[in-house]
Amino acid sequence: MKKIITILCIAAALLTGVSCGKKSETAVKDIKSKSGIEMVYLPGGEFIMGEGNNARKVKLSPFYIDKYEVTQGMFKKIDLPDPSHFKGDKNPAEMIAWVNAAMYCNERSLEEGLTPAYNEDTWECNFNANGYRLPTEAEWEYAARAGSKEKYFFGNDQKNLKNYAIYNKNSSGKTAPAGSRKPNPWGLYDMYGNVAEWCNDFFAADYYKSSPFADPRGPAKGKERVLRGGSWNDPEEFFSSSARAMDGSINDACILRDTIGFRCVRNAE
Amino acid sequence: MNRIRLSLTIIVLAVSALSAGQSNIPAVDLSAIKYRLVYETFENSSFDICIINADGTGRKKLTDTADVHEMHPKVSPDGKKISYVEDTGEGRERRRDLYLMNIDGTGRMLISKDSREQCWSPDGRFIAFVKSESTRRFSMESWATKGLYLYDTRTGIVREHANNTLEHLYNLCWSPDGKYITATVIGGMGLKHTNIGIEVNSQRYFKLNVSGCRPEFSPDGSTIGWGRTDSEFNIAKIYLNRAVPVADRDKRPFLSVTKGYEVYHLDWSPDGKYIAFSFGPEGEQNVGGTAKGWNICIAEIATGKWVYVTTDGKQNKEPDWIP
Questions:
Q1: Fewer CB under 10 Å: which end of chain B, C or N?
Q2: Interface test with B, best of A78, A107, A254 (most B CBs within 10 A)
Q3: Top-level CATH class of A25-267?
């Protein structure tokens, strides 16, 4: 009898603890940021990142991610220089060097009273800051997969790509307004195509062979940053949730590309 | 045996490249050049403007301020004035304003706030420049500019160019006939990254058919030089009255450096026989950018040979000849 009472007490205590402690959301949820930007809350979790021999299990903490790629209108709204080639307020910002994407993140953080994540002298990311930053490569793939294990978030049939992505067969040689195709199951638009998206990570081909299981953040140093998602200029063979790319246009104005843009994330509190 | 010969050849070539400008018999006889140069240099935690003889002697700082960066000097056609930019503040609070001073560094005067990338009209009356695009925060990006403006040195009045859609221009250069201003543009007016000519007295602009950065006219206006990449200069005949001012057949490589090094900031000597430029390990060529180990150099147009003018590597950039 004593044992039963003890078990009941422990169970009660545990339940109380859970209900009184900070409860983290378990469902994907649409939100609006303080400045009115549409984002999606992604609960933390485990998933298989990569494919084939490179596949490995990764665990992530919860975070918010932009529903759309950052648009030229969003740049204008906070009065930042926008070098985009294909003009249009609803089109994604492109010709964005990695440093300028990070700078946008900092300005958006200041706009919303958050602590900027990037040190503008070193461009190092403070992952403890509550401000905006670029997604880690793992966060990007987790968001793109949206719980799927197949090649694409819509399965394995490449024919369906046209419904979800702006790529070289349907782009007319330029970007399209953000959100012109269907979203993925978590409500994120243009995860494939339109503009390739900067991640926070430096690129290393073999990083995920030895990366940490929880919240991997990429190599400490490198010359190129990771790009994910492919662009309006890429052929359909390029696309998949695990396809990796990289670029060295981190801060060189002479090699800006009209195929590169980004979206922001921030830690869920 | 062939391998030994090859190795010896490589060593000889390497030594000639490394010792350029420092040997007893330089590749270019700098003492024959009568002109002086101004340039920016980084010393005591800030950029300052220096004046120097073409042979590297007589170096003198025209500005010497610890908390202010004086950069990007451009000498007036009569050699009496220097326009330059002055950066104050740090980080996002930094600002860049356009100034004018006498050739000896005296008489500094603000011309326009939040302004940059200036050049002189060939008659010395006007200074063309662009303004910073964002009023929210400073950007070091060369292309982060808006508009094209003309400062009248006689009246002090600034007026905007007739085409108020111009944006993201940098590397301005006024043609010797006074009719055009050339510029590099990134992501402006629907253009991706190219070089354009802008008519000074109309709204028209046109592509030069030059890819890369920073076209600069020779003094007679018959030729331009530009950076095709960060490691190579090209030279070409230019015909501004044609629909395509620079024909592909006229382009020729002039000077290139090996991977890991860069050349930038080309400027023609007043007699058209030489170009001055900056050279160094991979760095940031933009105004205010960090370029450790960079030096000012001079190349002879006729031979393509080049030598160092400075050797201290103190981020020496933006050379401009004094007529």
A1: N
A2: A254
A3: alpha beta
The first and second tokens of residue B148, run together, are 């094209």
User: Residue B192: beta bridge partners?
Assistant: none
- For A143, half-sphere exposure in the C-beta direction (CA atoms, 13 angstrom radius) is 36
Question: Does the distance separating the beta carbons of B142 and A253 come in below 8 Å?
Answer: yes
Q: Which residue of A has its CA nearest to B286?
A: A253
Sequence letter at residue A7: I
Q: What is the pLDDT of residues B209-268, one digit of tens each?
A: 999 999 999 999 999 999 998 899 999 999 988 889 999 999 999 999 998 999 999 999
pLDDT at A19 over 50: no
Of A79, A86, A120, the CB nearest to B135: A79
Is A100's CB within 8 Å of B141's CB?
Answer: yes
Residue A143 burial (C-beta neighbours within 10 Å; 0-12, 13-18, 19+)? buried
The CA-to-CA distance between both ends of chain B, in Å, stands at: 53
Residue among B91, B190, B193 whose CB faces A256 most closely = B193
Comparing CB atoms, the residue among B135, B137, B286 nearest residue A253 is B286
Residue A95 to residue B185: CA distance in whole angstroms: 12
| CB neighbour burial string for B262-276, b if at least 16 within 10 angstroms, e if fewer | bbbbbbbbeeebbbb
Is the minimum CB–CB distance between B101 and chain A shorter than 8 Å?
no
For residue A205, give the amino acid letter. A
Q: What is the DSSP annotation of B84-148?
A: EEEEES-GGG-EEEEEEEETTS-S-EEEETTEEEEEE-TTSSEEEEEEES-SSS----TT-EEEE
Q: What angle do CA B127, B133, B136 make, to 5 degrees?
A: 130
To the nearest whole Å, the CA of B165 is away from the closest chain A CA by: 13
ipTM of the predicted structure? 0.82
Chain B CB contacts of A103 under 8 Å are 139
